[in-house]
Amino acid sequence: MQTQEYIYLNSIYSIFDSETKYHKFNLNKPIIAHGNTIQIRVSEAEIPISYYNVIAGVNDSVFFKVTYTGNNEINYDITIPEKNYDADQMEQFLNTALTLLDSDDITLRIAYDEQTLKYTLTASYEGANPTTILKIEVVSSTANRTLGITDGLSTGDVNQTTATLKFLNSANLNRTKNIFLFMKETFDTDNTNNDSNQGHTILGKIQASQLFGDIVSYQNEADAFISLPSQVTYLDHINIKLVDDIWTYLDFQRLNFGISLIVQYTPKKDIIKTENINTLEHMINMVEDELCDETII
Predict the structure, then answer these.
(1) How many angstroms separate the Cα of 244 from the Cα of each of 9, 81, 176, 180, 208?
(2) CB of 54 within 8 A of CB of 85?
(3) Which candidate, 154, 99, 162, places its Cα nearest to that of 133?
(4) For the chain, which domains are there?
(5) CB contact set of 139 (below 8 Å; sequence gap of 6+)
(6) Tally: H helices and E strands in the chain
(7) How many Å apart are CA 252 and CA 250, to the nearest integer?
(8) DSSP alpha helices (H): ranges in the chain?
(9) H or E segment at 48?
């Protein structure tokens, strides 16, 4: 006979590990298998969209270079402050930073096109001398996904008073489409993903469908449970880390989040019976498919 119980987790009462980025939730009432298989399902979650889309040391730097008459160069090495930006705010910040680095009547500006979701760099000579732009290039960047930049992108050799460099990729200022709940490796689950560098540790996936400053209120519409390995028979705490689409830790800037879990205790014989039924159904389907193929031939 299956039995269930709810666990309500609030990050205010968790212990945060600044190195591993896991929140440790100590349980007042331990989860004890008593000979059953422990199964878990995320039921609800309330998560603030308070993480930034520019992170210091992760995606906060761009380095452009403009070459002009005489093979003179102007370097535009910019660090973007850690905070959240929309496309217009990013354009405004970058143009302010570019202006401070302009010299010799050469200007470099960036513009965002809402119809293509792409940025474009424009270099111009605004002086009276016979000077032209010879090249615009992206020397390096850690903000490739954020701004749609490609390292090494260049106009090639040009000879114009005004030259443009269009970024090839759409800017991604949403930071992430999903919020993944990772359990620590010792609680390895049967879930998986298509990144071989990550283990089978995903407890749940929540769509980051709200705007910055809002709260995602999630309710799981699925009724499937995740079975923990049979050797897991006792849990007095749960470690959970929230990450984005590329497995980078999400910093909610000290705002708390809440997660509701349903724990189900299922007799192991029921798990084995279900697995056997699934295996039998799979074998029947295989035989039917082979018979259909023979009939077609």
Answers:
(1) 20, 20, 5, 6, 9
(2) yes
(3) 162
(4) 3-51+176-266 (2.60.120.1100), 61-166 (no CATH)
(5) 63, 64, 65, 75
(6) 3, 16
(7) 6
(8) 87-101, 144-147, 268-296
(9) strand 36-48
Tokens linked to 171: 């800017």
DSSP, residue by residue, 218-279: EE------EEPPTT--EEEEEEEEEE-TTSPBP--TT---EEEEEEEEEEHHHHHHHHHHHH
pLDDT string in tens for the chain (297-residue length): 789 999 999 999 999 999 999 999 999 999 999 999 999 999 999 999 999 999 999 999 999 999 999 999 999 999 999 999 999 999 999 999 999 999 999 999 999 999 999 999 999 999 999 999 999 999 999 999 999 999 999 999 999 999 999 999 999 999 999 999 998 755 555 555 555 555 557 889 999 999 999 999 999 998 889 888 888 899 999 999 999 998 899 999 999 999 999 999 999 776 555 555 555 565 566 566 665 555 554
Alpha-carbon distance of 211 to 142, in angstroms, equals 24
